[in-house]
Design brief:
The complex is a heterodimer of chains A (about 600) and B (about 100).
Chain A (H helix, E strand, L loop, with lengths): L1 H8 L3 H22 L5 H6 L6 H12 L2 H14 L5 H24 L4 H9 L2 H33 L5 H50 L2 H6 L36 H5 L4 H12 L3 H31 L3 H4 L8 H19 L2 H11 L15 H4 L5 H4 L1 H42 L5 H23 L7 H25 L5 H29 L3 H5 L5 H8 L1 H8 L2 H18 L8 H9 L21
Helix pairs in contact in A: 2-9, 2-19, 4-9, 4-15, 5-16, 5-19, 5-21, 6-13, 6-15, 6-21, 6-27, 7-8, 8-9, 8-19, 8-20, 8-21, 8-22, 9-16, 9-19, 9-20, 12-13, 12-25, 13-21, 13-25, 13-26, 19-20, 21-22, 21-26, 22-25, 22-26
Chain B lengths: L14 H35 L1 H4 L2 E2 L2 E2 H37 L1
Antiparallel strand pairs in B: 1-2
Helix pairs in contact in B: 1-3
Classes of the chains: A mainly alpha (about 600), B mainly alpha (about 100).
Chain lengths: ~600, ~100
């Protein structure tokens, strides 16, 4: 009993209450909607009956992950301008999805992306390859969500080990998904979008009203060619940065001019590391020659990864099958862009204010560093307004909970769908009944949830937003080329598609793994010991900064590589283009009103007719 | 997958129809994508070649920060709105054309 008291001693009651309510509401909604999920179609594609408004909210809720909610703010705070590419490209990537993929993909009428892969090329073999990539990308994307869970729970309950949060949140979501499937989580995710928007906007506006607005906070940082005003001369009262107070920066924080300008600490890290390894007199000329060109390469590669990656994330793509038709799919995408765009304006504000008012976070690493600025910042106004600070902090914690819970549930549904529908229902036991498939769905959910939790325990030293970026890079080099090319080019063959997707995806995966091994080897905690043998990798990169950049951000070469391979191999095997390709293309592109619509997967086939 | 209407001789299943269908939609998509890409890929170039200009202060923001952190979102909404409008009109026209 004493132990429990001691455990709850350091817990802020407001933060605990708000977080608890979010978890309880999630579970309650999950249980409630589980009762209405009855058929296999309900479990896999929510009965294909989700309206535009609900689906747009649900996709946004699923998409805005721990990386968006906590990671973007933390990264803007630690890296400045360059980190802005993340929120912008996270949101703008949907444009590619809208322009090239959303409508046709929905018209094809599959359950999962592997379904599409098989149906488009008449190749069961290709389904297997596609399933592997659903799982790869899914697990890469799950790890940062798990870290978000661990960090947030450790923040709410000081002293709680990181892994407890991971296990707890993993268990709750797994239960939810196993009970309700896709239909169950659609409602939950839609509500969670609005929780997140509320949880980020309310604290931002209250904070800005107290400490000064976005533009003023940025104005307090010196840009190129500006000089610090004399300490006595405050800015004129009309100036936006008038009345902005700053705390002195700590030693680890980047200086103003590097932080506010493009090509700052994030994109120049590899070059700077290389320069540090050189003799002192060679450093300045080396930096002058290589720093900016290399960071331009980094920036472009990051943009390609994020924009193409968004259009190739399986757990997002699978949601488009829950729309009733292609027109609804297009409309949904537009609303998603508006909903997430509105959201993404705000996390950078936290980063900017955090830099000015909480510079001590720069000294922390991992869970205690800039990643927690969103959770910590609202407590600033506690001194002035007492309990209001705690309430706001409670609201942002609730938002963080909603963030990693909804994204993890979406990932779990898409991976479970791949396992239960593609592996069990199509490969292992094609003749299984609808009821058996639903049991398979539940077992798969528990299995994948377990693996995700285990992986999540290992990634504490890695930055949340960075890990998500890697998942995007893998998706950008595998699914995006596959979908883009097979929707618009009828000359694609299975061999071409498979070669391009495998090569691009595996290259990106390998590059991401190499980068992570190097980072883990540098960790000061237990992970550093496990991965210590990879430390020489970092010396190699110090000598070859460009290779390091191309490894950290592989999209600039892996996406063109994948597309080129698809074209070359398809041309070489052009005799193997599916015979009824014209019909397939017609189904992909013809408006529904022409009456050509035919679902690739039909419910009565599975023996579960309405 | 088999065709829902096995008659492959009508206009819907003809090669020219599919060709024009795909071409018109793709042309629209590419036009919208090009507008977007010019802005997206042009911004790093501006940052690279005109750093002093991009550091100009606009109401406290630097010009570059204002464009990327705030103005980019509405810009993309406009493109997507225009695309949806035109794309749905194209589909309507295709249906009309066949019914005539």
């Amino acid at each position: 009993m004493n132990l429990t008291l001691a455990f709850f001693g350091g817990v802020d009651p407001w933060i605990f209450t708000f977080s608890f309510i979010t978890v309880a509401v999630t579970l309650w909604m999950g249980f409630r909607s589980a009762k209405t999920s009855k058929t296999a179609s309900d479990f896999f594609v929510a009965g294909r009956s989700v309206s535009v408004g609900w689906n747009a909210s649900a996709i946004s809720g699923e998409y805005l992950s721990a990386a968006s909610f906590m990671g973007v703010a933390g990264m803007v705070m630690s890296s400045g301008y360059d980190a802005l590419w993340y929120p912008v490209c996270y949101a703008c990537g949907y444009l590619f999805l809208l322009l090239f993929i959303a409508g046709p993909l929905r018209r094809f009428g599959a359950y999962t992306i592997p379904d599409f892969a098989e149906g488009r090329f008449d190749s069961p073999m290709f389904r297997k390859i596609a399933v592997c990539f659903v799982l790869f990308i899914g697990f890469f994307y799950t790890m940062p969500q798990m870290k978000g869970a661990g960090v947030t729970l450790a923040y709410i309950f000081p002293g709680l080990p990181y892994w407890v949060g991971v296990v707890l949140v993993g268990a709750v979501i797994t239960l939810n998904v196993a009970l309700g499937g896709m239909k169950g989580i659609t409602l939950v995710q839609a509500v969670q979008y609005w929780i997140k928007l509320f949880a980020i906007t309310v604290p931002v506006f209250v904070l800005m009203a107290v400490v000064g607005f976005y533009n003023g906070q940025i104005g307090a940082n010196l840009a190129l060619g500006e000089t610090a005003p004399a300490a006595t001369a405050a800015p004129a009262s009309g100036h936006p940065s008038a009345g902005i107070e700053r705390k002195p920066l700590v030693a680890k924080a980047p200086v103003d001019t590097a932080w506010i300008a493009p090509f700052g600490p994030l994109t120049t890290k590899a070059v700077n590391a290389a320069a540090a390894a050189l003799p002192a007199e060679q450093r300045a000329p080396f930096l002058a020659e290589h720093q900016k060109p290399y960071s331009l390469v980094y920036t472009y590669s990051l943009i390609i990864a994020l924009v193409c990656g968004t259009a190739g994330l399986p757990h997002i793509l699978v949601r488009f099958y829950t729309n009733p038709d292609g027109v609804a799919a297009k409309k949904t995408t537009m609303w998603v862009m508006i909903l997430i765009g509105v959201f993404y304006v705000f996390p950078p504000v936290f980063g900017v204010i955090g830099r000015n008012l909480m510079p001590e976070l720069y000294s922390g690493v991992g869970a205690k560093g800039t990643d927690k600025v969103v959770l910590e910042l609202p407590t600033l106004i506690s001194a002035k307004y007492g309990v209001v600070g705690s309430i706001l902090s409670g609201i942002t914690c609730a938002g963080a909970f909603a963030a990693f819970m909804s994204t993890f549930s979406g990932l779990l549904v898409s991976m479970t769908g791949a396992l239960a529908h593609d592996v069990y229902g199509r490969m292992l036991r094609p003749k299984s009944s609808s009821a058996e498939r639903m049991v398979a769905f539940k077992i798969s959910a528990i299995l994948i949830g377990g693996v995700a939790v285990t992986l999540g325990c290992f990634v504490e030293p890695l930055e949340i937003n960075f890990m998500v970026g890697q998942a995007f890079a893998i998706a950008a080099a595998s699914y995006f080329p596959l979908l883009f090319m097979s929707v618009w080019w009828r000359g694609m063959t299975m061999k071409g598609a498979a070669t391009g997707m495998l090569t691009g995806g595996l290259c990106a995966l390998g590059a991401a793994a190499l980068t992570n091994l190097g980072t883990l080897a540098l960790d000061k905690g237990p992970m550093g010991k496990i991965f210590a043998s990879f430390a020489p990798l970092n010396n190699f990169w110090a000598e070859h900064p460009l290779l390091r950049i191309l490894c950290e951000q592989p999209a600039i070469w892996s996406v063109p590589l994948a597309i080129t391979l698809m074209i070359v191999v398809s041309k070489a095997t052009s005799s193997q283009v599916p015979a009824d390709i014209r019909m397939k293309m017609l189904v992909l592109h013809a408006p529904e009103k022409l009456g050509l619509k035919q679902e690739y997967i039909q419910d009565h086939q599975a023996g579960a007719g309405h | 997958m088999s065709s829902p209407t096995p008659n492959h001789d009508d206009v819907v299943h003809s090669e020219p129809f599919l060709r024009s269908l795909m071409r018109r939609q793709l042309a629209l998509s590419i036009a919208c994508a090009a507008t977007f890409l010019v802005a997206l890929l042009g911004l790093p170039l501006l940052n690279y070649f005109a750093p002093a200009f991009m550091a100009t202060r606009v109401a406290g923001f630097t010009l570059s920060w204002l464009i990327l952190g705030v103005l980019f979102f509405p810009f993309v909404w406009i493109i997507s709105y225009v695309f949806i409008k035109r794309s749905l009109r194209l589909e309507e026209a295709e249906v009309q054309q066949l019914r005539r």
